Amino acid sequence: MKKQDDNSSQNRRMFFQSALLKIAEPISEFLNTPLQQVNQTEDFFLRPPGSLSEHEFLKACHRCNYCVDACPADAILPLQHEDINLRGTPAIDSNHQPCVVCSSLVCMTVCPSGALQPVEVHEIAIGLAEVNHGLCLNSQGINCRHCIEMCPIGEDAIQRDSQNRIKVDPEGCIGCGVCQYECPTDPKSIVVKPLAT
């Protein structure tokens, strides 16, 4: 009888150990998951609004993640890059989440180093959208206005030309990336590229 009790006790122990492991495993995975980062898949990346020129930005940026934490859209993430000078610096991946040009533009105001400078909305210069007309649905006779309708700047930045093709105005486009994010084609027919600095 004692042997049966021992077996029963051992079975209960194994059951609870197994149950505990099933509960603890996802918690362990969560705790070991690194902070989400921008993976550089292109030969370029975008900086947050108000960034200094790339050379000056890299000298000034503390990699403190204040702008990352403050961004209400979760658009700014630390850059994952093989170059140690770039790794951990804040960047935007418009395919993941574009800058939504929030009313507070808080990323600029929380930066303690001056790598991000407060500027007016029309002075933001994250990049410039470029259209690949070969991929664009409008060039294939399909009426698509996603990029125009979703652009926070509006037709001052993007519109249709006389041939019904999407046209980006370099004077109005701030490079927020909303057009790229909203574009329904794969690969994207509109992509924001950084300005030469």
What does the model show?
With 197 residues, this protein is of the alpha+beta class. The protein has one domain. Helix content is 29%, strand content 12%. The protein contains 6 helices and 7 strands; from the N terminus they run H-E-H-H-E-E-H-E-H-E-E-H-E. Strand 5 and strand 6 form a beta hairpin. The protein starts with a helix and ends with a strand. About 9% of the residues have low confidence.
Helix content: 25-40%
List the uncertain runs: 19-35
Number of extended strands? 7
Q: How large, in whole angstroms, is the Cα Rg?
A: 24 Å
| Large-scale geometry | elongated
Bin the strand percentage: 5-15%
Tally of separate domains: 1
Tags for this model:
two-stranded antiparallel sheet, three-stranded mixed sheet, 197 residues, 29% helix, alpha+beta, single chain, elongated
